[in-house]
Amino acid sequence: MRKLIPALVAAVAVTLGSWSVVFAQAAPSPADGQVVKIDEAAGKITLKHGPIKNLDMDSMTMVFRVADPAMLKAVKTGDNVRFEADRVNGAITVTKIQKK
Questions:
Q1: Domain spans of the chain?
Q2: How many CA atoms lie within 13 A of 50 on its CB side?
Q3: Tens place of pLDDT for every residue, the chain, 100 residues?
């Protein structure tokens, strides 16, 4: 029993340490893009964007949901932007956006 407890403690420490690495890698990272279209009624924005590291996504043009529809009023079609996106309730969502 005395040998089992240190082994269990070590196993738990390794597991918790590996989970912290997973969560640290999943944090949103800024990406650059250009606004192609804004759909305020649907709360969506189309962005032509560079790589999004935290989502392991290459450069492309795609439609995103926005976390807060008020963000759409801060940008217009053609604007160059810096934004963060993440999975929110299973949908890839812009969580921050600002003009460059």
A1: 31-99
A2: 11
A3: 566 565 545 555 555 554 444 444 568 899 999 999 999 999 999 999 999 999 999 999 999 999 999 999 999 999 999 999 999 999 999 999 999 9
Angstrom distance (rounded) from CA 96 to CA 93: 9
In CATH, the number for domain 31-99 is 2.40.50.320
CB-neighbour burial class of residue 17 (10 A; exposed 0-12, middle 13-18, buried 19+): exposed
Q: pTM of the entire structure? A: 0.74
